[in-house]
From TrEMBL:
Membrane association type: Multi-pass membrane protein
GO cellular component: chromaffin granule membrane; lysosomal membrane
Source domain of life: Eukaryota
Cross-referenced InterPro entries: CYB561/CYBRD1-like, Cyt_b561/ferric_Rdtase_TM
UniProt subcellular location: Cytoplasmic vesicle, Secretory vesicle, Chromaffin granule membrane
Name of the protein this chain belongs to: Transmembrane ascorbate-dependent reductase CYB561
Transmembrane segments: 12-36, 56-76, 88-107, 127-149, 161-180, 200-220
Coiled-coil residue spans: none
Essential cofactor(s): heme b
Native organism taxonomy: Eukaryota, Metazoa, Chordata, Craniata, Vertebrata
Gene3D superfamilies: 1.20.120.1770
Main location: membrane
Organism: Hypocryptadius cinnamomeus
Domain annotation Cytochrome b561: ranges: 20-221
Pfam families cross-referenced by the UniProt entry: Cytochrom_B561
Length: 251
């Protein structure tokens, strides 16, 4: 340390938590695949197994990829801000596309089997989360990725974008937990209370979802792990403020 200023937190701790998050994420994807493959017959489109694409796509898109998109600004701390923004938006966009495939799968499966849509708490929470997530993505691209929004407007919206980003991640995990419970009650309601292997595996998936969310949330809420602004970014920010607000850089 110089002049009595403590040294910054070692990035090793950040790297360790990010590595744990990825290990948990890959494990929950593998667990989802194992559950669907071992006990639900696997995944196939335009068949009685089409529904199984729904939980797989939602865990992959709305949890794993969304979590990774949120971590982008912590992982790529010293890369150009524009590139980091583009990767952040790209991962969220990919998550939306995969989730859309999952939504199509469940609606088509319900129509084929004559099952009513949108009556359960899981479906209400899940659809609301997806719609809000899509809106959040469009607003984020409009405010931060493409030119147009003024400096003051960006400054006002940024805290809202961060808050709703974390909130939607929590809602996504919550919707998945509701979906897991719903699937178990539909498929093994008679044996679930006897600790059958499928129930234990699905419960384990739920625990992994919560653990992934907790680790990602911890990384996102550590103030000392926030991405520090680069000198050139601060200069560009002042220039942008001058152009959009008509103020001098020192004003």
């Amino acid at each position: 340390a110089m002049d009595g200023v403590p040294p910054p937190t070692s990035p090793t701790a950040l790297s360790a938590y990010v590595a744990v998050s990825q290990l948990l994420g890959l494990t929950l994807l593998a667990t989802t695949g194992a559950w669907l493959g071992r006990y639900r017959g696997g995944v196939a489109w335009h068949s009685p197994l089409q529904f199984n694409a729904h939980p797989l796509c939602m865990v992959l898109g709305m949890v794993f990829l969304q979590g990774d998109a949120l971590l982008v600004y912590r992982v790529f701390r010293h890369e150009a801000k524009r590139s980091t923004k583009a990767l952040h938006a790209l991962l969220h966009g990919l998550a939306l596309l995969i989730a859309l495939v999952g939504i199509i799968a469940v609606f088509e499966s319900h129509r084929t089997k004559g099952i009513p849509d949108m009556y359960s708490l899981h479906s209400w929470c899940g659809m609301a989360t997806f719609v809000l997530y899509l809106l959040q993505w469009f607003l984020g691209c409009g405010f931060f990725l493409f030119p147009g929004a003024s400096f003051s407007l960006r400054g006002w919206y940024k805290p809202q974008h961060i808050f709703f980003g974390i909130t939607l991640f929590i809602l996504s995990i919550t919707s998945c937990l509701l979906g897991i419970t719903e699937m178990l009650l539909f498929n093994i309601s008679d044996s679930y209370s006897h600790f059958v292997p499928e129930g234990i595996l699905a419960n384990t998936l739920g625990v992994l979802l919560v653990a992934f969310g907790l680790v990602v949330g911890y990384v996102l809420t550590r103030e000392e792990w926030k991405r520090p602004p680069l000198a050139e970014e601060m200069a560009l920010s002042m220039d942008f403020k001058t152009l959009t607000e008509g103020e001098s850089p020192g004003g």
